[in-house]
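Task: sequence design from structure.
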């Protein structure tokens, strides 16, 4: 797949700029790309991606800072992300021939080619709406793969018949490896976490959106009941890190519209500052949604302060369990 992406990108680069480039596998990243322009040879350390998402930007920026002549090649990069890459001076090349590259007197910028649609993985039940709910639990509890399937279904609030299909999907994609008939081991949970964030944003989260409300009180004075409503997004990040003053507000809830209005004096308002999403996991004793959800909220909202706080949450609450 990676070599196909590079091949198509270099063919498109030749069409859009006339530059004939050569790629070969080489560490420390995915390979090295070389071309000569106006008598000068340029060499780049290349990272190859299928599709770039907002939550991956901090890692891309880290690679850029730690690899001389870094170049990102991707099948597709969304316009907002391309703009962020350009603001940071990070070079990229898309499979369609769009390119941003500023290096040693050379400046290439093409953004006129139509995007190429990325094929979605079809048929794998681990990455459906229901499968993502199961993965959400497994990313927090790595030993849960050894639980009886009925117990895992109860803990994840999904029908029992979904569990073997999700487990088969994880085996099919190589995230779970059978050692024998009874033992499974994880492989590359960090990559699975990144994939979960990307699919959560496009598959599961849109199904959770309920309504917007206007806050009538200071958010810190609101006392939620019975763990059926929890803070997400920026308020949750502030509770977890004391590092972010919320400007946008988000809750996850199992309570009804009337309960939210009556118990917390929330006023329905399509332009309100509070977004309400359905809580799809079992209640816990925390005031906030699980750190994985809070991290996803911050990365999907974007902005420098959110990303900085998201990385703090990742290192302190998520990475140790991956």
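Answer:
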């Amino acid at each position: 797949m990676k070599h196909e992406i590079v091949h198509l990108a270099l063919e498109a680069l030749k069409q859009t700029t006339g530059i004939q480039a050569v790629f070969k596998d080489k560490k420390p990243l995915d390979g090295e790309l070389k071309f000569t322009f106006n008598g000068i040879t340029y060499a780049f350390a290349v990272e190859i991606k299928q599709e770039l998402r907002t939550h991956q930007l901090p890692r891309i920026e880290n690679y850029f800072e730690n690899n001389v002549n870094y170049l990102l090649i991707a099948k597709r990069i969304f316009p907002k992300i391309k703009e962020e890459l350009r603001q940071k001076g990070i070079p990229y090349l898309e499979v369609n021939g769009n390119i941003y590259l500023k290096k040693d007197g050379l400046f290439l910028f093409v953004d006129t080619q139509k995007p190429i649609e990325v094929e979605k993985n079809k048929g794998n039940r681990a990455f459906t709406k229901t499968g993502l709910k199961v993965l959400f639990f497994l990313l927090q509890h790595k030993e849960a793969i050894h639980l009886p399937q009925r117990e895992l279904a109860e803990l994840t609030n999904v029908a029992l018949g979904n569990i073997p299909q999700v487990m088969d999907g994880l085996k099919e994609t190589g995230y779970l490896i059978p050692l024998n008939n009874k033992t499974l081991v994880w492989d590359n949970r960090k990559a699975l976490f990144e994939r979960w964030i990307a699919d959560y944003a496009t598959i599961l989260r849109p199904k959770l959106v309920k309504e917007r409300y206007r806050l009538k009180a200071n958010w810190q004075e609101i006392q939620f009941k019975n763990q059926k409503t929890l803070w997400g997004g920026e308020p949750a990040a502030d509770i977890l890190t004391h590092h972010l003053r919320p400007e946008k507000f988000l809750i996850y809830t199992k309570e009804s519209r009337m309960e939210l209005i009556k118990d917390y004096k929330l006023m329905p308002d399509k332009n309100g500052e509070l977004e309400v999403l359905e809580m799809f996991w079992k209640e816990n004793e925390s005031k906030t949604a699980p750190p994985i959800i809070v991290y996803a909220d911050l990365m999907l909202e974007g902005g420098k302060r959110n990303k900085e706080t998201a990385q703090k949450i990742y290192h302190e609450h998520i990475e140790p369990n991956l």
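The longest strand covers residues 40-52.
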